[in-house]
Amino acid sequence: MATHTPQLHAVDAPGEQITAEAQRAADDARLGWERFQELIEQDKRVEPRDWMPNNYRKTLVRQVSQHAHSEIIGMQPEGNWITRAPSLKRKAVLMAKVQDEAGHGLYLYSAAETLGTSRDQMYQQLYTGQAKYSSIFNYPARTWADIGAIGWLVDGAAITNQVPLCRASYGPYGRAMVRICKEESFHQRQGWEILYTLSHGTEEQKQMAQNAVDRFYGPALQMFGPPDDESPNSQQSMAWKIKRFSNDDLRQRFVDMIVPQAEALGLTLPDPDLKWNQKRGHYDYGDLDWEEFFSVVKGTGPLSHQRLAHYRAARDDGAWVREAAAAYAAKQAEADRGSALLRA
Amino acid sequence: MSKPTTDQVPDGGVVAEDPADHSVWPLWEVFVRSSRGLSHVHAGSLHAPDPAMALRNARDLYTRRNEGTSLWVVPAAEITASDPDAKGGYFESAQGKSYRHATYYTQSEGVPHL
């Protein structure tokens, strides 16, 4: 039921016959847009059935589904280490973490679905390779220490990125992020603890921890996306209050946090330009290898092919389970209908 | 805010199609009671082929950290919702009726236990 305010009927279409229907659609769009702008300006949340610009919807579907895919693909480097975790405790922790990642993927698919794209469509986009996910997961986890570095640096960067997203203007996305952020903090701490244990072990173990940090430092910093002047979509996302801080601001915040954390580990960060800048009140850090980043984004990462192949195999191998469950549900529903008829 | 002209209005609209129509499994809404004495509160949604699987999935997805003592799953298609476009008019009757709130009555200020 749309309300029609008379003064909003001034649709300029000189010389054209405006049908009543087109007129109404134009009025609805205008009212919807005004309401949308008001919501954004007043820092209120946009909810699924609200009118929203198509580009806002598209941007969100892209960002939220990409985020969901990252959680799903992100299970692979860690799942790969479950059987080789060094103790039963570590194995239980890692299984809980991988299960969380699956859960995070599902929360995010749910949020994206409210925008009108079904989860099965998104699965299909990931399956066919049309969809992107965070390029960090195209790097291999070579040693047990990498599982520590992934938890500390990769999940740490993710949290830094995600905390402001809890206030994203799109309600369902923000709510999913609140749930995710609560769970992520365990991920980061367990990663840091793996590295702490190693860095306080034998010389060899400490070296293994250092190598893992050396490998993941750069890629983790790149998780915030390209520098602000090369990130064309950022500005619109910030105007829509989907993003609250720029890529470089978040990256700086992360660097400032991990420097003392690395010191507490007794490990170093592999950046000769990393030093405290008294004037800025922040740590300066060196240039990152963006050429490599963009080549990994384009799908030439060390494991791009393997990650996708593994996902496809899991989808294919699980198809019979989904089909059986659907067939069973249909049969039960049929039986229920039958017994209802008998009772009638 | 200045009134936009027609060509300033970007393309947009409400959800045109129900994503559940394209799904192999139907969509369920999940409600969690966090502890005895509290209401069930909406936690999120999930896909499942039938009610039993929906409940199991809800347990695994929304109560991994003791968040609940009871779960409801409701087929999303069974929910009747108010029209979002109607929010102004539909909820109008509650507006301007501040006398429904205790704060409306000020004469008793300073009188104990009132």
Query: In CATH, what is the class of chain B?
Result: Alpha Beta
- Report strand order across the widest sheet of chain B: 3-2-4
Structural class of chain B: alpha+beta
Specify Rg of chain B, calculated over alpha carbons: 22 Å
Distance between the termini of chain B: 44 Å
Total E-strand runs of chain B: 4
Main sheet record of chain A: 2 strands, antiparallel
Report on this model:
The complex is a heterodimer of chains A (344) and B (114). By secondary structure, chain A is mainly alpha-helical. Helix content of chain A is 67%, strand content 2%. In chain A, strands 2-3 form a two-stranded antiparallel ribbon. In chain A, helix 6 (144-165) packs parallel to helix 8 and helix 7 packs antiparallel against helix 8 (203-222). Chain A is globular, with a radius of gyration of 24 Å. With 114 residues, chain B is α+β, with helices and mostly antiparallel strands. Chain B has a single domain, classed as Roll (Ubiquitin-like (UB roll)). In chain B, strand 2 and strand 3 (40-47) form a beta hairpin. Chain B is flat and about 60 Å long. Chain B starts with 11 loop residues before the first strand and ends in a 24-residue tail after the last helix. The model of chain B has no long low-confidence stretch (mean pLDDT 83). At the A-B interface, helix 1, strand 1, helix 2, helix 4 and helix 5 of A face strand 1, strand 3 and helix 1 of B.
